[in-house]
Design goal:
The chain has about 450 residues and is mostly beta strands. Helix content is about 0%, strand content about 65%.
Length: about 450
């Protein structure tokens, strides 16, 4: 597979500039922001019988590059040249996964391993003006590798009761060569063991209940594991943990109301030892406070015939930081209510139509919840016809021509003639206006 692209695209823009009539909702403060990127990959796999079981293996190699130009704060940090910056990432990635499965009937075992190695020739942050270099904030070369081993067992105790047990071991190693600030160079490694378990009980043909538990993790930026000095400020910086554990649990059920109608419901909880939060003036994320989330998810699915289907899904999540802080306990950007649904219809003559809706409820933009996003509603429509192997389709995106926002952030930025400390406010990216897209498809 191969991909190469370049573009100009506006970042989020300050709401105050739109309210004051200085900028269109589709405009940009810095018209030179955008990016160019490429990605080339090759992958392969094999599945077959081996050692009395079923063996599978996959491997891949990727070569990718990214030059991303952004400007979120405009004239806040550098009133002369502006705050545009360039993020660079040039890397080669190699990975594999192998697994072996044995058993049939009541008990099935699966063991396997996977690994990934990233050779990052260049990753950095640079100050720029109209895409021309101004200064270097940080430039590094990074080598990072990970290896994981896992084993799992599915066991059917009866026609009504099944269990799942799994165990996984992961190890990560990082090596950072800090070109700009050699004191930030170094090596780090960490490992973690994660367990998973589940029980599935089917008291009747129309009902299935389940209870599951799982441990997991997320990894932090390798450069944060060896840092000693903040390259932007020169101040002493704290290192972050390489791996951050999480634990979750879920209880739920599936109800088969008929051959055409199914419903699902679940209650879940998730605890993270550290959140990753967006930093507006750097265009990146930083490790933050421990959090917990609890939620409920509901789903209703209809498969009435080959000509008509539909689904409706709803989720509500309560997200909070676990520790107390003067700023508050809300997690910026965490969306409490999400509703999505769709209806698809098809005729025997080949005509088809699909309508989909997605709703995001209000969500906090800062920790005390005093500033919130209004949420959004988006409706898309597709209609078309198929003639054997050939199909023609018309997509109408943002059917209602909604002026809602794709994303909202709250932070300080500075426009021309504004105070040196900048102005705090909402920065947003609006939905694209109603648009139509015609496509043709041919199946071999």
């Amino acid at each position: 597979m191969g991909y190469n692209n370049s573009w100009n695209s506006p970042d989020q823009i300050p709401e105050r500039a739109v309210r004051q009539g200085k900028l269109s909702p589709f405009g940009s403060i810095d018209t030179s922001v955008g990016a160019d990127s490429s990605r080339y990959s090759i992958s392969g796999g094999w599945v077959g019988s081996l050692a009395g079981g079923r063996f599978s293996a996959d491997a891949y190699a990727i070569d990718s590059s990214l030059n991303l130009f952004s400007n979120f704060t405009y004239l806040l940090d550098d009133p002369v040249n502006g705050d545009q910056f360039r993020q660079v990432d040039d890397r080669r990635v190699y990975g594999f996964q192998v697994s072996q499965q044995w058993g049939s009937g009541r008990s099935r075992w699966r063991i396997g391993a996977d690994g990934r190695y990233d050779a990052i020739d260049r990753v950095g942050l640079f100050r720029t003006k109209a895409r021309q270099p101004v200064s270097t904030v940080r430039e590094d070369a990074v080598n990072q590798g990970s290896f994981g081993f896992f084993a799992s067992n599915d066991f059917a105790w009866s026609n009504k009761l099944r269990t799942y047990l799994g165990l996984r071991y992961d190890r990560f190693a990082f090596d950072v060569d800090a070109k700009t600030f050699p004191e930030n160079s170094g090596s780090a490694d960490d490992d973690i063991v994660s367990a998973k378990a589940g029980i599935i009980y089917k008291p009747a043909n129309l009902l299935e209940l389940y209870l599951s538990f799982g441990e997991g993790f997320h990894s932090n930026d390798a450069r944060g594991t060896t840092i000693t000095r903040d390259p932007a400020t020169g101040e002493v910086a704290d290192r972050v943990d390489a791996l951050v554990p999480s634990v979750g649990a879920e209880i739920g059920g599936r109800v088969f109301l008929s051959n055409a109608v199914q419903a699902t419901a679940s209650l879940w909880t998730l605890r993270l030892e550290s959140e990753l939060l967006f930093v507006g003036d750097a265009g990146t994320t930083e490790s933050s406070r421990p959090s917990s989330r609890q939620g409920v998810e509901l789903g209703l699915y209809y498969f009435g015939s080959k000509n008509l289907s539909g689904e409706l899904e709803l989720s509500y999540t309560n997200s909070k930081f676990r520790d107390d802080a003067p700023a508050g306990r809300e997690i910026p950007g965490s969306i409490p209510l999400v509703v999505s649904g769709g209806v698809s219809a098809r005729t025997d003559s080949g005509w088809l139509a699909t309508a989909r809706v997605r709703y995001f409820g209000r969500y906090p933009l800062i920790e005390d919840k005093s500033v919130q996003s209004d949420g959004s509603l988006l409706v898309n429509l597709r209609a078309g016809r198929e003639w054997g192997q050939l199909g023609a389709f018309l997509d109408v995106l943002n059917l209602l021509n909604s002026k809602d926002h794709d994303i909202d952030y709250f932070y300080a930025s500075r426009l021309a003639n504004e105070p040196a400390q900048g102005v705090e406010g909402i920065h947003f990216h609006v939905f694209q206006p109603r648009s139509a897209r015609l496509s043709l498809r041919y199946r071999l």
